[in-house]
């Protein structure tokens, strides 16, 4: 970890996972686990594009945890309102809460729909796109411990049901930069989500599988990434 911090001091604008793994002479998987642990403690933070890493608040002497929910929501709400249109039923801002995730804010066209979570609700990591996007920012060992503590009760027949299967999916999510669920929480709902750099947060969209079709996922990811970058910048 100290080698990683030392390396990042030479890259004030940030460095990619691949570049850091070469510089500290570690496998990418090990480098990612160390970075995730450092990020959780604010020694490291993501760059605005969500791809690179740079030194975080602790290293620059800024107060850790200075950004609280009021500041977070002030930045997030306008972004989320603009994302809810067309086939999108709701936009979700989700953060880690113990062994689950909690919806920090929900913007929905149909708030009375029982399939749409409410602000403050908690949900499992393994059945939602935002839960997966949050988990992808943690080390595999941490995720395995959380899933063991909470259990992996399936919500539908499409739900991920084993820790190894979930960890394999997280590796794919880290590579692609977004998480996707299809009929895993409800049998007719699709979700897509991206991580928000700096804290274990995720921003996601949900819609009916029949309307939020496969061809609409890539543009949804692009919109989410732009919004997540703005949100990460606002948090700083």
Secondary structure blueprint with pairings:
Blueprint: H1 2-9, H2 17-23, H3 28-40, E1 44-46, E2 53-55, H4 57-60, H5 69-83, E3 90-97, E4 100-108, E5 122-123, H6 129-135, H7 140-150, H8 163-176, E6 179-182, E7 189-196, E8 201-208, H9 217-235
Please bin the fraction of helical residues.
40-55%
Briefly note the structural class of the backbone: alpha+beta
Separation of the first and last Cα atoms: 23 Å
Indicate the radius of gyration in whole angstroms.
Answer: 17 Å
Low-confidence stretches: 61-67
Shape descriptor reads globular
The pLDDT mean sits at: 88
- What share of the residues does DSSP label as strand, in percent? 15-25%
Q: Report the count of strand segments.
A: 8
Q: Please summarize the sheet with the most strands.
A: 6 strands, antiparallel
What is the spatial order of strands in the main beta sheet? 5-4-3-8-7-6
Order of helices and strands: HHHEEHHEEEHHHEEEH
If helices are DSSP runs of H or I spanning 4 or more residues, what is the number of helices? 9
């Amino acid at each position: 970890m100290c080698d990683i911090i030392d390396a990042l001091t030479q890259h004030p604008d940030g460095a990619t996972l691949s570049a850091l793994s070469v510089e500290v002479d570690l496998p990418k998987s090990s480098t990612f686990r160390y970075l995730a642990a450092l990020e959780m403690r604010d020694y490291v933070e993501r760059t605005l594009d969500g791809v690179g890493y740079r030194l975080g608040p602790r290293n620059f002497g800024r107060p850790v945890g200075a950004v609280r929910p009021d500041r977070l929501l002030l930045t997030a709400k306008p972004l989320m309102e603009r994302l809810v249109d067309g086939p999108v039923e709701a936009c979700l801002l989700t953060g880690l809460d113990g062994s689950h995730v909690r919806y920090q804010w929900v913007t929905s066209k149909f708030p009375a729909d029982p399939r749409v979570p409410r602000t403050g609700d908690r949900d499992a990591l393994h059945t939602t796109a935002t839960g997966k996007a949050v988990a992808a920012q943690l080390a595999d060992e941490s995720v395995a411990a959380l899933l063991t503590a909470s259990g992996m009760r399936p919500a539908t027949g499409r739900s991920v049901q084993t820790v190894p299967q979930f960890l394999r999916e997280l590796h794919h999510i880290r590579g692609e930069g977004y998480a996707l669920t299809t009929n895993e929480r409800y049998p007719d709902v699709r979700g897509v989500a991206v991580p928000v750099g700096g804290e274990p947060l995720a921003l996601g969209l949900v819609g009916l599988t029949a309307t939020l079709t496969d061809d609409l996922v890539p543009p949804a990811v692009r919109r989410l990434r732009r919004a997540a970058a703005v949100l990460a910048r606002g948090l700083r």
